[in-house]
Amino acid sequence: MNVTGDTGQNMVIGEFAEGSAAQVVFRGKGGVLEIGPNVIFRSGTINFRGDGQRVVLGGDNVLLGEIHLSGNSSQVEIGRGTKMNSAVWMNLGEANDRVTIGQDCLFANVRFRTSDSHPIYDDTNGERINPSKPITVGNKVWIAEDVLILKGAIIEDGSAIGARSLVAGRIPSKCIAVGSPAKVVRQNIRWEEKFPR
């Protein structure tokens, strides 16, 4: 693990497992990276760009990709046993943004965006019409290749999201959802990580 920035005003709790090649960059203060046991971060960057940010990795994870926390007090939590087969990209663009991922999930080349990165206002009254929103992924969720998860998305336990889908709303538990926007095409499913031998 290569850590750059002010380590006196930020904190790393724990260590990545052997075989990791993560870059951790602190640009603000009060950042915390909490690494559970047996976490492999094969390659990529965790980029703390603001103040009071936190990343919690539950343990027994295999991770790969980019996590960018831009807004102050933003937070990422990844539950125990979650794995990434190809690079995942997260952008938490605004203050207090949050991405919460449950246990035993499986991802491939997924992109997470908690905000649009640029504010849009109603020109008649000045009200902002595109605030950021948290993203929540439950336990044992499978997200296939090239899926985009947008602000406010909620994917409940046990579901599977098909390749190249876009998730912007709520996906109920134990279902398959596909498309742009993703829609439920099958309910009462159970998926396994490997085929039986």
From TrEMBL:
The keyword RNA-binding does not apply. Gene3D superfamilies: Hexapeptide repeat proteins. This is Acyltransferase. InterPro entries: Hexapep_transf_CS, Hexapeptide_acetyltransf, Trimer_LpxA-like_sf. One of its GO terms (molecular function) is acyltransferase activity. Keywords: Acyltransferase, Repeat, Transferase. It comes from the Bacteria. It comes from Roseomonas haemaphysalidis. Coiled coil: none annotated. CDD domains: LbH_MAT_like (cd04647).
